[in-house]
Amino acid sequence: MKNVVSKTELTAIIADLKQRGKKVVFTNGCFDLIHIGHVRYLTQAKNLGDILVVGLNSDNSVSRIKPGRPINSEAQRAEVLAALRMVDYVTIFDEDTPYELIKAVQPDVLVKGADWDIKNIIGSDLVKEVRAVPFVEGVSTTGLIKKIQGLK
Q: Which structural domain, as residue segments, surrounds residue 41?
């Protein structure tokens, strides 16, 4: 997919978009099993600017953060995200945090879920605006996995 790009490609694309006056929003995550909470979250993030960039944790990064995961490969997760109308660009990062990616992209707005305290959001020191977007109550990838396994 043309909107799944490398960090190098992304920084060039974003520099051009910002020169044209576009407001760039960045968020990140594992996005292992896309559900209604993700869709609403990404829609709200997109509404904060013109261009929504999603930093996607690589398979190695996810497995360090969430043992036994991911369920879907990074290529599959990236393609699903890129197909969503509100997502403009997806790039995969291998580090435990997106800090270096945020530093490279230099977004105007950084978005995370409301479970994060704004001052503890990785990269909040690099951007002008940080926003915490509320979650859909009772919906999570972990919950879906437990339900599928018959544990919930």
A: 7-148
* Cβ within 8 Å of residue 71, ≥6 positions away: 32, 33, 141, 145
Answer whether residue 25 is part of any domain: yes
What is the chain's pLDDT, residue by residue, as a tens digit (152 residues)?
689 999 999 999 999 999 999 999 999 999 988 888 899 999 999 999 999 999 999 999 999 988 888 999 999 999 999 999 999 999 999 999 999 999 999 999 999 987 777 878 999 999 999 999 887 666 565 665 566 667 65
The reply to whether 71 falls in a domain is: yes
Count of the separate structural domains present in the chain: 1
User: What is the pTM for the complete model shown?
Assistant: 0.91
Q: Is residue 1 part of a domain?
A: no
Report, in angstroms and rounded to the nearest whole number, the Rg of the chain calculated over CA atoms: 15
| One-letter identity of residue 84 | L
Q: Is residue 132 part of a domain?
A: yes
